From TrEMBL, chains A, B:
<dbReference type="InterPro" id="IPR011032">
    <property type="entry name" value="GroES-like_sf"/>
</dbReference>
<keyword id="KW-0560">Oxidoreductase</keyword>
<protein>
    <submittedName>
        <fullName>NADP-dependent oxidoreductase</fullName>
    </submittedName>
</protein>
<dbReference type="Pfam" id="PF00107">
    <property type="entry name" value="ADH_zinc_N"/>
</dbReference>
<dbReference type="InterPro" id="IPR041694">
    <property type="entry name" value="ADH_N_2"/>
</dbReference>
<dbReference type="InterPro" id="IPR045010">
    <property type="entry name" value="MDR_fam"/>
</dbReference>
<dbReference type="GO" id="GO:0016628">
    <property type="term" value="F:oxidoreductase activity, acting on the CH-CH group of donors, NAD or NADP as acceptor"/>
</dbReference>
<dbReference type="InterPro" id="IPR036291">
    <property type="entry name" value="NAD(P)-bd_dom_sf"/>
</dbReference>
<dbReference type="InterPro" id="IPR013149">
    <property type="entry name" value="ADH-like_C"/>
</dbReference>
<dbReference type="Pfam" id="PF16884">
    <property type="entry name" value="ADH_N_2"/>
</dbReference>
<feature type="domain" description="Enoyl reductase (ER)">
    <location>
        <begin position="15"/>
        <end position="327"/>
    </location>
</feature>
<dbReference type="InterPro" id="IPR020843">
    <property type="entry name" value="ER"/>
</dbReference>
Length: 334, 334
């Protein structure tokens, strides 16, 4: 038997344990062309909150009483596929359960010689690619420009800021604690960092961005984001990656942005990393090179134990994590 | 002596006559390299409202107690320039006064054989070019897509809708009266039109856009614009040209747009026509061809008499005009 996590109710606002159900179910055995994968790491991500609502989006909503899924690193325990051997380490979008039986084409092998397996869910995974394509393809940062990123100590934000530094920009991060601010300044090399819990973001931004804002990488929405618009330079670019402040509220009301966009000829572009799937290899290559060269660092907040998966997910909305949030479910068997 | 119109006070919200002062001043005589131009048409435009505030924008604010300026068609009365002859018809950004003495490089001659002189302030002028570049360069409408335009019976909106029809789109206009709705449907060839004063815009849009919205050309902002976002298709484009509902209010509050942009990977891009100045000739050529071929129609609301200039400007915020608003100050002398 194994445990799995189902969506029991659609969360009204901030999700709670009551919205989920942990059940026991049999592990089963793979048929031809299938593999049995033991879960090693589960990726918990803010965007999953959107899939818990029953609304149209770029990805279908989770169904009630079905298992939740996200990025998972697993180890092949039993293979009925020619493509995989026992003990292979694989990556895919799999269920929140201790074991998954899946078709051979639903995962791919990863090369753990390049980097530790967890990085395929963080800096070399969707998180890193989200930062890479959002910043470079939409934000188009130019040397000497000012780039502001919110959720700056988070999975995506911390990578965004470092790539912007690699591109020669002045980088300002917004985060929610002194620890995070120190991390941004001391470990990730940001030029300035703002603690939105203790500082007036508008005032602090004006001080941190004496030449205005050329790129704002949007992870949070809400009042933090509102403070950005009056400081936009002409032809500013805003990759809109996330709006975590809005995910748990029905009423997301604030100053409209139209007049700011007109006055500065600025651009806001929503995106999801899937838009760039044809270019993933390019992104992974460059991220891996920066990682190898020590130009890119990453942090992971790792919660240990399958039973802590829901906690790790709920923590995302408390700003508890630094870098990528992962749940470590099991050790790899050598 | 002649009359001129000064900005006396910065309007608090909706401008009134009290914000302006009409004074008498001498006409003067041109020096070498200057011309004396008699005002024939004055263009009154919503964007001028923004210039009456003392805030940073793409164009400097008007100064208090100085003459207001905008697009003007005039006739050369006296020339001390080799470039201009008496009676030439010229176009430039000139003062709201009956006569302007200007340097020879501040205006250009227009060819009234192609189209009536007033069109250089409307369909062949900044208005037409705004519609042309905003729709085609940012909106990128593709055949069969649904294009929605607000302020649809106005100077820019009426041209936007017709260009979208030329490009093979389904075109839905939003306007503020039955007369305007009828004009859109019967004269400008829109596929559907919504009267925001009598209809629930959200409900009407859902009905008029069964395949969702691919391009929204934003002229008005506010609650009309709010109703667009839930209907955006994936990869929708929103050229943000104007937000007339916001120009006269300090509090422009509404639903934030970030989550909509993320869910649909949509783009909002503010712009002003000046961004495209290097391509004006291209735009004028194509607009003139469509005009000649009868594929593009235009409407003008012409107010007669210099003394009515302020009224014509104030009327813009009452939705009184259809098509381009112009003040006819004098007849051309043959």
């Amino acid at each position: 038997m194994q445990k799995q996590i189902l969506l029991k109710k659609r969360p009204k606002e901030t999700p709670t344990h009551n919205d989920f159900e942990v059940v026991e179910t049999s592990i089963g055995t793979p048929s031809d062309g299938e593999i049995l994968v033991k879960t090693i790491y589960i990726s918990v991500d803010p965007y999953l909150r959107g899939r818990m609502n029953d609304t149209k989006s770029y990805i279908p909503p989770f169904k009630l009483n079905e298992v939740i899924s996200s990025g998972v690193i697993g180890q092949v325990i039993e293979s009925k596929s020619n493509r995989f051997d026992k003990n292979d380490i694989v990556l895919g979008s799999l269920g929140w359960q201790e074991y998954n039986i899946i078709k051979e084409d639903s995962v791919r092998k990863i090369n753990t010689n390049i980097a530790p397996e967890s990085t395929y869910l963080s800096v070399l995974g969707m998180t890193g690619l989200t930062a890479y394509f959002g910043l470079l393809d939409i934000g188009k940062p130019k040397e000497g420009e000012t780039v502001v990123v919110s959720g700056a100590a988070g999975a995506v934000g911390s990578i965004v800021g470092q790539i912007a530094k690699i591109k020669g920009c002045r980088v300002v991060g917004i985060a929610g604690s002194e620890d995070k601010v120190n991390l941004l300044l001391n470990d990730f090399g940001f030029d300035a960092a703002i603690n939105y819990n203790t500082q007036d973001v508008g005032v602090a931004l004006e001080e941190a961005c004496p030449d205005g804002i050329d790129v704002y990488f949007e992870n949070v929405g809400g009042t933090i984001s509102d403070a950005i618009f009056p400081l936009l330079n002409n032809f500013a670019r805003i990759p809109v990656c996330g709006a975590i402040s809005a995910y748990n509220t029905a009423e997301d009301i604030g100053p409209r942005v139209q007049t700011h966009l007109i006055k500065t000829s600025s651009l806001m572009q929503g995106f999801t990393v899937g838009n760039y799937s044809s270019r993933f290899e390019e992104g992974i290559q460059e991220l891996a090179t920066w990682l190898k060269d020590g130009r890119l660092k990453y942090e992971e907040t790792i919660t240990v134990g399958f039973d802590k998966t829901i906690d790790a997910f709920l923590d995302l909305f408390k700003g508890a994590n630094i870098g990528k949030s992962l749940v470590k479910v099991a050790e790899i068997e050598k």
